[in-house]
Amino acid sequence: MMKLKFYLVYLWYKVLLKLGIKTDEIYYI
Question: What's the pTM?
Fold first, then answer.
């Protein structure tokens, strides 16, 4: 389960970077 959550966060982070959104403000979600 932990690996799955980590993978989802990783994908979310990559998507945010692609969109050019500042990830610092929404990283904790």
Answer: 0.47
